Amino acid sequence: MDLQKIMATARDIAKQTGTITTEQLSGLCPNSMEPEEIEALLGALRAEGIRLKDDEAET
Fold this sequence. Notes:
Blueprint: H1 3-14, E1 19-21, H2 22-28, H3 35-47, E2 51-53
């Protein structure tokens, strides 16, 4: 899955709350992602105002 597809799915997940959990994001990403790709993904999430949270219970 490429970064654009990951971002599109992350946007859909975050549409209601503006957040995505680390578990949800991890489930979208292939194990073979390079550190540069992860950094680009996190930067894109921040740029769109999508916050990353540790788990479902966090508010």
